[in-house]
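Need tokens for this chain, all 613 residues.
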Amino acid sequence: MNSSATPSASGRQARISTTVRNLAAVLLDARSTVEELTTLNPDAASSALILGLLENTQRTIAYGQLHATFHAEVNQIYRLDPETATHLDALAAAPQALADGTTAIPAERMCTGMAQHRNTAAYLQAHLHISASEARRRLTGARLLVAPAPSFGLAAPLPGPDMDFSSTEWTMGRTGTESTLAPPLFPVLAQAAADGTADVGNLAQLAGRLEGMQPRIHQREDASKLNTAIEESLAHEARTAEPRNAHKALSDWGAYLETNGAPMTDEEIRAKRGMFYRGVREGFAEYLLRCDPIDAESIESFGEAWSNPRSNKVPPVSASTAGPHTVDPPTVGPPTVGAGNCDGQATARKPVTRPVAPVGIPAPAWAIAPGMAPDQVPLSSWVDGVATSNGTDNTTNTNTNTGSGDMLGLVDPRTTPQLLLDGIIASINGSLTGTALSESGGLPVRVGVLIDYQSLLGQCETAGITGHGRVVSAENIRRLACDAGILPAVLGSQGEILDLGREVRGFSPAQRKALAMRDRGCCIPGCHRPASTTEAHHVKSWLDGGVTSVANGALTCGYHHLQIHAGLITLRMIDGIPYVVERAGQPRGDPERNLWWHPELRTVGFIPPLFTD
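Here are the structure tokens for all 613 residues:
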């Protein structure tokens, strides 16, 4: 070590001590502030502001954690002497002495033999008491959003307080008391983490997934430009929407690479597909189901049919969800396929009809104008109605004196995943047939695929897109089309319906199919409800002269449909496509389209059209 390195190392240590003392003081202040917060009863505005401040504080801390994790990995923190590590844990838990400056940072002592921990991740788990996945996330974020970790050869000395950081062995480029880190691998995502405009943990996960896509990206001549475009797309989603929107955007880019980069062949996909037993955990048998896009689309369509709130059909209960029941006496004759009873006889289970309220129920009190005469109160004329609490089918009940409490009682307590599993189990048991599946939101259960006409005829090989946004090869779609129904439609360059073959009045099944092909789901950005669970909405109200046509229709989920009619969201048709042009309480910006259902637009640099008025 040269003699000029000592002052530099001394100055660096002084800065570290000052930073640690300030950080200890911040921790004590934060604890005091949170303790004070627990004694308050803030109003809505104050609560919202406190939430925002705490979230931004957490993001700042999370970004600092990535930097600290980076240096922990570089300095091989897992090789710390166990006694030193325990002493450091105690100081971090009770930082008053550090904040007062009465205690200094203990001297670094490293293990001379075998280290107590295998690697940095193991140290983080043991001393910070975090999960293995969280430790990996922080290490990934540090490596991709802070700087690539320097690599030391087997014969190179370990970094330490006496190391000459200006030597060529240290790839971070430290000079004097300053340090210059190598640029992060994903600078756009790193900037979003640094400025606190997005969740740091989510950005770290996105960076890890994006890193896995690099082999396919690097094969392209425009690799640098494409990486920047993907990062900007992910950063925008991470800053403006919930985490799964950003992950969906990355999946869309992955699908784009499959068709425009180095895609996996159908043979490779088929070789990896299957149902894999993962063992028993906490009393449950776990399976990993790996499907190709067509199989996955079939499973999702099957699940939507049974969990669709607009359908009055639910699957029969399985043995685990049936609850207590009385054993029926044994029957004479051959056993039927289904769940068995205590006598060994198998009893077939049938699809269950959701209980519905009868026609003629008076409107609830909140929907009646003050002072309305009793004989003027509107009565229910719903076909499907709402659920009752007695578990019976009231579709033929003519009693109109049922109270609203009966209408709004408990329905099937099973969750959506439980409904899907029960449907699959019942299908395996042979209790279900295709005819038992009800229509979902006006559309029969089916797998929908949008594909270019020339590709369908075999004149080119452009891949198609399923109703849930999956990319399917033209070969597989042509195979499915051999025994499938085809709805001919001509679409424009932005997916607008140009011609459905004929014009019909009212939102007919043909028009709903056209809307489903165009919108694919709820058209409100950020909504993930598929077309089968949506409602057709007149963009220009029928009362205002709007026609019932595809050019004036948009698919919205029930929740957003209510928001539109309440004036909280404004839609406008632009070039045959529904756009959100205004939201209550938000400044008017560019028209928005729900890119969740249109990944092909995201990957070609889609730009929303500007206002023309």
